[in-house]
């Protein structure tokens, strides 16, 4: 029996739905329009946009607007009140450091949203082969959602026939190795961000292969395994042929180019409304930490030691922040302590040990699949974090 939470999963993007339409719940009006196009719903039966904007909530109550307004108020206060000046200066430093990466990341996400059909991703994730893990990681790189959105999409893929191992690999690779967040990490860390991205791919690959062994031995839940399925979700669908057909059909007219630009910007805005407020919250927390937490406390509790790694792991486990919001906090740990391994541990452990994600895997896939996730990933994360602290 489905729970109320399961029933409110957006059938298009996999996010938690809030807008009822066509017998489903959708996260935003854009997903409703996509659903109507796929289902061939006539215009007279289409969802009425009413007076609400964005995700069906009045604009003045949307999270992005509320968080942005509160942040603007704090920044204005920082100009007038000396006690808030350290926060103001730290936030503006962060903004100057990453504004270009955020803008570029959203534009990349808009391109992916408009030009990469979900069928490409769903086709290959139900095969029980080692190459499936590679497919999962590659498609995770093409996704443009935060860790919580990636979890919802992963669960949706599992329901459509993807095996457990590919879902777990997809879940681990996407938050830190997807293209928009990769750009964001380079904005914060520069070239060393490449270590984070590559290590995320390594952890995702090793964990996915480990889950395949567990699947073969019946030690984790796997719906597709139980059904004996070893075929793609879309058996009569060729990605290469579809790309060729799309290229041949596309005409480089001003109308089509304008439509593509509009679709890309709409996808970028949809992504921004989903994750930008998380990023702002992360910048707020990092700015307060930079402005008011003494440097010696960072070095004592989050320094490049075994104790520092353990405290960082605990810190990442209890903090409920989206992947984009974790990036400023991870950079602040690095800036204060110089412990790159601790920053990596904070980022990766936030996905591997987050209680919300483990709980949803438990609920939708099974308790064994959920419990194995931290058992397999945490040792890898701590080992890589220790090596980074020792070598870098």
How would you sum up this structure, described in words?
The radius of gyration is 22 Å and the shape is globular. The chain is mainly α. Strand 1 and strand 2 (24-26) form a beta hairpin. The termini are far apart. Helix 8 packs across helix 17 (340-352). It has helices at 4-7, 29-39, 63-80, 85-115, 118-123, 130-142, 147-159, 164-177, 179-189, 193-216, 223-226, 239-249, 254-292, 295-302, 306-318, 323-337, 340-352, 355-364, 367-391; strands at 19-21, 24-26. It has a two-stranded antiparallel ribbon. It folds into two domains: 1-58, no CATH class; 118-391, no CATH class.
Key terms:
single chain; disordered N terminus; 392 residues; mainly alpha
- Alpha-carbon Rg, integer: 22 Å
Mean pLDDT: 79
Percent strand: under 5%
> Biggest β-sheet: count, sense, barrel?
2 strands, antiparallel
Class by alpha and beta content: mainly alpha
Strand order across the largest sheet: 1-2
Separation, N- and C-terminal Cα atoms: 51 Å
Q: Choose one word for the global shape.
A: globular
Domain unit count? 2
| Amount of helix | over 70%
Number of strands: 2
Which ranges are low-confidence, i.e. pLDDT below 50, for 5 or more consecutive residues? 1-6, 50-55, 227-232
Number of helices: 19
Query: What's the SSE pattern?
Result: HEEHHHHHHHHHHHHHHHHHH
Quick description:
The protein is mostly helical and 392 residues long.
């Amino acid at each position: 029996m489905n729970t109320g939470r399961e029933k409110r999963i957006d059938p298009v993007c996999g996010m938690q739905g809030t807008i009822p339409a066509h017998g489903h719940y959708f996260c935003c009006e854009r997903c409703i329009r996509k659903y109507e196009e796929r289902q061939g719903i006539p215009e007279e039966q289409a969802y009425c946009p009413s007076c609400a904007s964005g995700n069906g909530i009045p604009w003045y109550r949307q999270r992005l607007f509320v968080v942005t307004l509160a942040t603007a108020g704090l920044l204005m206060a920082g100009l007038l009140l000396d006690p808030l000046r350290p926060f103001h200066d730290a936030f503006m430093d962060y903004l100057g450091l990453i504004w270009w990466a955020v803008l570029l990341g959203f534009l990349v996400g808009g391109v992916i949203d408009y030009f990469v059909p979900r069928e490409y991703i769903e086709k290959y994730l139900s095969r029980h082969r080692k190459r499936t893990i590679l497919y999962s990681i590659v498609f995770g790189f093409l996704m443009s959602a935060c860790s919580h959105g990636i979890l919802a999409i992963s669960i949706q893929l599992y329901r459509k026939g993807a095996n457990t191992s590919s879902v777990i690999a997809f879940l681990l690779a996407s938050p830190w190795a997807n293209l928009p967040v990769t750009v964001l990490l380079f904005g914060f860390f520069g070239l060393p961000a490449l270590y984070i991205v590559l290590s995320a791919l390594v952890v995702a690959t090793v964990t996915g292969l480990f889950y395949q062994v567990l699947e073969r031995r019946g030690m984790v839940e796997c719906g597709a395994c139980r059904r004996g399925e070893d075929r793609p979700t879309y058996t009569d669908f060729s990605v290469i042929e579809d790309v060729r057909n799309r290229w041949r059909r596309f005409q480089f007219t001003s109308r089509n180019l304008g439509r593509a630009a509009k679709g890309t910007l709409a996808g970028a805005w949809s992504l921004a409304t989903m994750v930008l407020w998380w990023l702002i919250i992360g910048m707020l927390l990092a700015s307060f930490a930079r402005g008011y937490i003494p440097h010696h406390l960072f070095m004592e509790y989050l320094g490049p030691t075994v104790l520092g790694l353990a405290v960082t792991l605990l810190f990442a486990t209890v903090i409920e922040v989206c992947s984009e919001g974790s990036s400023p906090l991870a950079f602040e740990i690095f800036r204060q302590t110089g412990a790159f391994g601790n920053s990596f541990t904070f980022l990766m452990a936030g996905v591997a040990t987050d209680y919300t994600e483990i709980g949803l895997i438990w609920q939708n896939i099974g308790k064994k699949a959920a419990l194995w996730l931290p058992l397999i990933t945490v040792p890898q994360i701590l080992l890589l974090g220790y090596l980074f602290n020792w070598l870098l």
